[in-house]
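#struct-pred
JK: can someone run the complex with flavin-adenine dinucleotide? inputs below
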Amino acid sequence: MKPNIASADGVDVEQVEIQHLVVGVGVIGLAVAAEHSRRRQEVVVLETGSRIGGGISSRSNKVIRSRIYYRSDSLKRRSCVEGRRLLYDYYAERGVSNWKCGKLAIATDDRD
Ligand SMILES: Cc1cc2nc3c(=O)[nH]c(=O)nc-3n(C[C@H](O)[C@H](O)[C@H](O)COP(=O)(O)OP(=O)(O)OC[C@H]3O[C@@H](n4cnc5c(N)ncnc54)[C@H](O)[C@@H]3O)c2cc1C
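RT: done, structure tokens with the ligand placed:
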């Protein structure tokens, strides 16, 4: 980081040069920031809430989505499958406990 002082409308403000700025630090922002950090790149995070991860991310039920809700040709489905694989790899590498309990899907009409 290279701080310097500049004047905006007669008011001195501090300008800072940074490589990466992540605005909003839920699970996505944190993952992006962590990846930059892993690559030894400078990253600064900005969060409007009173704590990191306190937004929607704090509401999650922690279910690892399987893919069944998404259209088979969709990016969402491909991302879900790939993300799930990466997440289980991440858990295995770091010894994070998790429960792969499966899911029972019940068809309630002919369309299902
Ligand atoms: C009840 C509930 C249950 C869920 N259960 C699951 C589940 O079991 N499995 C699953 O995979 N997903 C689940 N989800 C979905 C999942 O929680 C979200 O998709 C995910 O947390 C979104 O993360 P995010 O980082 O994109 O957003 P957020 O967690 O919302 O993070 C965005 C952050 O940006 C900050 N921000 C916003 N604007 C600004 C700004 N201008 N400047 C600075 N900061 C800003 C916010 O304060 C917030 O902290 C659930 C969601 C809900 C609501």
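RT: quick notes.
The first strand starts at residue 2 and ends at 8.
The beta strands are 2-8, 11-17, 20-23, 43-46.
JK: thanks, will look after standup
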